[in-house]
Structure formats: structure tokens, C-alpha cells
Amino acid sequence: MSRTHTHPDATAQHLPRPQPRRARVKDVMTTTVVTVNPHTPYKEIARLLSENRVSGLPVLSAERHVVGVVTEANLLAEEEKRSLERMTIPGHGPRQQWALTAGDLMSSPPIAIGPNATIAGAAREMSAHNVRRLPVVDEDGRLLGIVSRRDLLSVFLRPDDEVAAAVRGILDEVLNAGSKIAAVTVTDGVVDLTWAPGADRVLVAVAIRLAWGVDGVVDIISRASATPESS
């Protein structure tokens, strides 16, 4: 069942979500990162992936520049390739596989992102390149951290009372005594705004736009009060 979104003194309408959102990659990224270098051997890569329960590892140069990413998929693809070779080429044993290094196996150039990228931008990059995590790098390509799909979703786990307090702060700033002009409730990240009759439509629009920038906001419902404001 769809919700009805209304604007004061207007017919029902869904409020468009403006961009960008406030949260940035640097706010949710993990800064303790397990890494390898181009010379790390196959079996060590496999061990690190398994022990740390991650799907990929950044490959760093001596200067901590991210030169690639080696993933479970890279290792499995190589295993499949070597298995086929062993079946078709007599005397082709597994030692060649174990001798491979991160430099041989990694995907390069790496798909990375900057710390000031938006949450939405990081999600688009992951989707476009079908990856689960992105190295976060500075302007020179040095590793700062890593951001995963789970990290991006953490933005929406902010408690409802914190979201409501942040929205009320915006109303007070924009509308001056905003608590008397609008009632705010938040349920599962959905902000419900009920405006007093006669609320300034221009300021209401500004307040709603700013409210979309609050971390944890999933949707906004705006409606005019059905009863006159009490004195």
C-alpha cells in the first residue's frame, strides 16, 4: 500500500529526493585494512581472505599506492583455469598455481573511490563494477581505508530519535520556533512532518530539502494539519 505525500495547501504529491546526501565515504569506511603487496603468494592470499572473512584485498606498492585488488573471484578463476590445463596438458602440475602472486592475480587498474564521495556515489560505483567493496584513496592514490556494501547501509541504521532530533534542529533553524509550526515523528527512518495551517510554503520547501540531507532519512511524508493551530 503506497503512502500519500502531501504539501501544505497543495494536492498530494511525492517529494523528490534532492542530492547530495550529507554522509560521505570517510564517515563509514573501515580504516584498519588487511592488504597484500604484488609479491604476496597465492596461498598467503587465500589464507588472509579466509582468516579475515573478506572477499578482496587491496594490493599496495611500497609507497602504499593501491595498484590493484585481488579477490576470491580472482583466485577461483585461476583455479578453474589451472584445472583445465592439468586435464589437457600432460605433466601440468599444481606448483605453477601456487607460485602465482598477487601481482599476477589482481584486477588492475583498481576501482577505487575518494573519501569525500557520497554514499550514493559509492553505491553506484559498486553496482556499475559489480564489486562488494572499494579501496578509499587520497589524491595520490594512497590507501586511506576500505568501504563495503555493509558500511554504506550503516547510514540507515541511525536510531529514529536521533533522526527526529536532527530534523527538529533544521526546523528550528529555518522556521524559527519550528516545533510550533510542524510536528515531527520518525518511524524506521521515515520522517512524518505535519505542518500547522498557514506555514510559509517557501520555508517549508527549504526545510524539507535540508531534512533529506539528514543521515538515516529513508523517506519524508509532509502533510498539512487537519485542525487549526491552537493559541
Question: Short summary of the structure?
Answer:
By secondary structure, the chain is α+β, with helices and mostly antiparallel strands. The protein has a domain at 25-155: CBS-domain (Roll).
Describe this structure in words.
This protein is of the alpha+beta class. The chain has a domain at 25-155: CBS-domain (Roll). The protein has nine helices and seven strands. Strands 5-6-7 form a three-stranded mixed sheet, covered by helices on one side. A two-stranded antiparallel ribbon has the order 1-2. A two-stranded antiparallel ribbon has the order 3-4. A hairpin with a 2-residue loop joins strand 5 and strand 6. Helix 8 packs antiparallel against helix 9. It is elongated, with a radius of gyration of 25 Å. 27% of the residues are buried. Mean pLDDT is 82; it is low at 1-21.
DSSP helix count?
9
CATH topology of the domain at 25-155: CBS-domain
CATH architecture classification of the domain at 25-155: Roll
Total DSSP E strands = 7
Helix content: 25-40%
CATH class annotation of the domain at 25-155: Alpha Beta
Q: Tell the overall outline.
A: elongated
Average pLDDT for all residues: 82
Helix-and-strand structural type: alpha+beta
End-to-end separation in angstroms reads: 36 Å
Sheet having the most strands: 3 strands, mixed
